[in-house]
C-alpha cells in the first residue's frame, strides 16, 4: 500500500511499477482531532453538502422502484429481465466513466453533466403508461344457501342444501385446496334470510310446486343488495329450524333469533359432485353452527331434513314463480326463500383481483429503455462522485467516512418525506402516485449538478495511458484479492437486500417496524463512519473486511432462527457493518492500492464488481435459492458462504499480506542503512 510519510513531494516507483506522486505531509491527525481538522477544511464543505443532496436523491426514489414497476403492471418475469439488463449496465458504466475521468483529469464538467442528465432522465418514467391494472375484488364474497333437487348435483333423488356464489365478481373456486375425503370445511357468516329473485330461468326447478308469494315479495321494502343475476329481498323470517345429529340420535329443535343477527357457521361442502365444477353449485353435507359463541363438535345441522320437500310449511325450500309480460318478450323471475352468507374471498376463491390489460409490451419496452438511460447517468455519476470525494479528502488529509455520514443523514431525512408524499398523493393502494418521488429526485440531482460546478476538482493531471495503467494495477495480487472480496460481498448484499423485508413480512413484522429497522441501521452506521479512519488505522483494512464477513455470519444465521419480530432491530443494526462499513473499506482500500492518476478507474472497478457483478448475480441466485429451499435455509447457506470467504481472506492476510509488507519494511530499512 502507498503510505505518505516523507516531508516533501517526490516521484517514487510503487509496487506496480508505476510512477506516482506521493504527497508528503505531517503525520495525519487521529480521532476527534481528525474530525475537527476535517470540519475546518473549507474545501470539503461543498463535498459534505453534495453528499447530503446526492444520497438524499438515492433515498427518495431507488427504494420505490420495485413498487412503481408493480403499479405499472410489469410482471415478475419482466422485472427480472429489467434487472438483468440493469446489472450489465452497472458493470460497464463504472469502467467507462472511470477511464474517461482519468483521461480528462479534471472531470468537474463531466460530473455536473451526469447529475443533470440523471435528473432529466428520472422524469421520463412519468411518461410510461400503465400496461396492466389489477383491480382488487372485495375482501368478502356473497353466497347463498338454499335447496335444490339433488339429481342435478349428485346421484340422490331428494333435495339437498346447496352453496352457490352470487357475487358480482364470480368466484373461481379452489376446488383442490383444503380437500380431504372429497369435502372441504368453509367458515362463513350467516347474514340474513329472505327472498332471492333471479333474473333468468336457469335456476328454475319444476320439482317444486309453485307457491304464490308475489304479494310477500312486493310487501317487502327496498331490496338490500343486488347480486349477479339476482336481487335479494329481506324478510322477517329466519332459519329457525335446526335438525341436529349427535353420536346417538337425530332430532330437531327451534331457536328464536332476532332478525339481522349474524351467525358464524362452518359448511362442509361436497367436492365429489359431478356437476359442481361446471355449475359452481356445491352440495352441503353438514353445517356446524356456533351457538352463543361456543361450537360443539357433536352438533351438526342435517341439511337433508332442512330440505324436506313434504313439509310445505318449511319456507327454506319454497319456490315462487313470477311472470312479467311486455309487448315484445316474456321475462321470468323466480323467487326462492334463501339465506345469504359472507365468506372471506381468499379462503375459497383463487381470483382475488381482476387484471385489466392495456398495452403491456409498450409499457415494458419503454420502461426498459428509460431504465437503461437512467442507470447510465446515475451509476456513472456515482462512480465519478466517489472518485472526486476520495481525491479531495486525501488532498487535505480529511476523513472519507465523515463525508459519507452526511449522505446517511440525507437518506434518513428525505426517505420518510418521499414515502409520506406518495401516500398523500395516492388515492388508494390500487391507485398509487409516485410523482412526488420522481420530482424530489429530479430537484435534488438538479441542485447537485449546479453545486458541482462550484467545486475545485483540479487534483491531478490527466493520465497518459489509462488502459495501460489499469492493466498494470490488475497485476497486483492484493488488488485482485480485493476485487474478489468485493464480488462476494456484493453477492451477499444482493441475496439478502432484496428479500429480507419479504422475510420480515412473513414473520409478522409490520411496515412501521421495518422503517424503524432502517433508521436503527443508519444511526448505527454514523459512528462507524465518524471513526472509520481510526478503525482502519487500529485494525488494518484486511482485518476490517474479516469483521464485515463475521457480521454477515451473525446476521444471516440469526435471521434463519428468528421468531420474535422485534429481534429484527438487532440484526438490522448489524447491517451498518455488513453494508456501510464494508463498502467504505472497499473504496478507501482500493484507492490506497492505486495511483493518483487512476483513482477514478479503481473506483469504477470496485463499483462494477460490487454493485454490478456481485449484487446482480446475488439477486438472481437469491431468488432461485429461496424458491428451492425457503428463505431460512437460504440465509444459512449464505452464512456458510460468508464464513468460508472470511476464513480464506483471513489466511490470505496472515500468510501473504503481512509477510510481504514485513519484507518491504525490512528491505526499506536495509536500503536506508
What does this structure look like?
The protein has 673 residues and is α+β, with helices and mostly antiparallel strands. The protein folds into three domains: 1-16 and 463-673, Up-down Bundle (Growth Hormone, Chain: A), CATH 1.20.1250; 41-134 and 360-457, MFS general substrate transporter like domains (Growth Hormone, Chain: A, Up-down Bundle), CATH 1.20.1250.20; 140-351, no CATH class. It contains 22 helices and 17 strands. The strands form three sheets. The chain has a six-stranded antiparallel barrel with strand order 4-5-12-11-6-16. The longest helix has 42 residues, at 631-672.
Question: Order of strands across the biggest sheet?
Answer: 4-5-12-11-6-16
Number of helices: 22
Tell me, rounded to a whole number, the average pLDDT. 69
Proportion of residues in β-strands: 15-25%
Helix/strand/pairing category: alpha+beta
User: Shape from CA axes?
Assistant: elongated
At the fold tier of CATH, the topology name of the largest domain is Growth Hormone, Chain: A
Record field, number of beta strands: 17
Count of domain modules: 3
Radius of gyration: 35 Å
- At the first level of CATH, the class of the largest domain is Mainly Alpha
Low-confidence stretches: 1-26, 150-160, 176-180, 201-226, 237-255, 274-278, 293-306, 309-332, 668-672
Termini Cα gap = 22 Å
Helix content bin: 40-55%
Largest sheet: 6 strands, antiparallel, barrel
CATH architecture of the largest domain: Up-down Bundle
CATH level-4 homologous superfamily of the largest domain: MFS general substrate transporter like domains
